[in-house]
Design goal:
Strand order of the largest sheet: 10-9-8-7-6-5-4-11-12
Order of helices and strands: EHHEEHEHEHEHEHHEHEHEHEEH
Largest sheet: 9 strands, mixed
Helix content: 40-55%
Shape: globular
Strand content: 5-15%
Length: 390
């Protein structure tokens, strides 16, 4: 990959990472002592938050961060440090420990599908039933939904589909009409038609990063999984175009059973490192969408391989220059799921709310109803079908 040296993100590890964590804790403390009327409340919230954070840290093996230019990220799903969005996330987390007077917490992550259109036939597509149907959301509708969530703060917003680049002009409009101070915006894409010009235009409109779907390190296997020849090359070129435009890149892997070998996982990690990509997101397959009715969930042996891989790449100093890996399912198994409006939720291509893309049960309309009523419906629907909701 022909990436310029000053555009290659740097992985922060060791004492530099620990120093960064201390800086984050100091920032959290400053927020706490500012927003709580009593110091006792601030201290209680901080102690509880530290306990929660340590549990998350152990489950996800948080030992790395990413510096891209002047921007620093702890994870893809956390906003950039030093921004209003990270302060919103901090207040959300403190409020979960001790209620902040007058504060109505928002989401840490909003996953919003903006189109049904897609040229691929992906084996795992969770929007399969709606794919290439009639669009229901105008670009004004999308902006209205985003604004509803941003009123209470939505620290990170991920725009997906379908293939969202099929609505490229609308993407630029959506970014320009949204509050870029409140939220960091990411685009989730296959890389389809992600040209240098489009990458530059989206970066100029305020996009922070790009999540590129890449489901195998081998081009032929990825193309087979995606149902279209050349899709691996799209992703590779898109990664290069994104980084040249100053966008941060994450590769998203749906780790199906046959992929879960140490050889495949390390080959994938080497590819990400060689491409200059600082983040990998690992998802486990679920029997929804195109996978509906199939036995696709990982078994104990595949999960053990994945967890051993994540622990090693995150903690072993020999892999200090490898990408940061986000494997949220490990946290879900150990502690519980934060979907269903607790920390994140999913809005589909009709504007309807779901616990997440894999827990599909419509719980109201983000466009036609209040967000508060939707969150109540999500709570009544009991959240995640696989893990307790926390």
């Amino acid at each position: 990959m022909n990436t310029l040296p000053d555009q290659i993100p740097r992985i922060i590890t060791g004492w530099r990472y620990r120093l960064l964590e201390l800086k984050m804790l100091r920032g959290m403390a400053r927020v706490a002592f500012k927003v709580y009327p009593q110091r006792r409340m601030a201290w209680t919230a901080l102690r509880r938050h530290i306990k929660t954070h340590l549990g998350y840290q152990r489950a996800c093996h948080l030992t790395k961060a990413v510096q891209a230019g002047q921007q620093v990220f702890l994870q893809m799903t956390f906003p950039r440090l030093g921004t209003p969005a990270i302060r919103i996330l901090a207040m959300n987390e403190l409020h979960r420990q001790v209620a902040i007077p007058g504060w109505q917490p928002g989401l840490n992550v909003l996953l919003l599908a903006i189109t049904k259109k897609c040229s691929l036939q992906c084996a795992h597509c969770f929007e399969w039933e709606a794919l290439n149907g009639r669009e229901q959301l105008s670009r004004e509708d999308v902006v209205q939904i985003i604004q509803k969530f941003q009123i209470n703060g939505a620290a990170t917003i991920e725009l997906s589909g379908g293939e969202p680049l099929n609505r490229f002009d609308d993407l630029v409009y959506i970014l320009q009409e949204s509050d870029l101070e409140v939220s960091d915006f990411w685009l989730l894409t296959s890389g389809y038609r992600f040209t240098p010009q489009r990458a530059q235009a989206l970066a100029a409109a305020g996009l922070v990063g790009v999540g590129l779907s890449l489901d195998h390190w081998d081009a032929d296997e990825h193309d087979r999984f995606r149902g279209l020849a050349g899709s691996f090359d799209w992703a590779r070129q898109a990664a290069q175009n994104a980084q040249a435009a100053g966008l941060v890149v994450c590769l998203t892997l749906t780790a199906v059973r046959e992929f879960c070998t140490a050889e495949n996982l390390w080959a994938y990690a080497r590819l990400a490192r060689d491409w200059g990509v600082p983040f990998i997101r690992v998802l486990e397959p679920r029997a929804v969408g195109h996978f509906a009715g199939q036995s696709v969930e990982l078994g104990p042996s595949e999960i053990a391989v994945l967890e051993a891989f994540v622990q090693k790449i995150q903690r072993d100093p020999a892999y200090a220059d490898y990408p940061v890996v986000d494997y949220y399912a490990a946290y879900q198994r150990q502690i519980g799921c934060s979907g269903a409006g607790k920390r994140f939720l999913y809005v589909d291509t009709d504007g309807d709310l779901h616990a997440c893309p894999f827990c599909r049960k419509k719980c109201g309309s983000a466009l036609l109803e209040s967000i508060e009523s939707g969150l109540l419906n999500l709570a009544k629907a009991s959240g995640c079908h696989a893990y307790p909701t926390i």
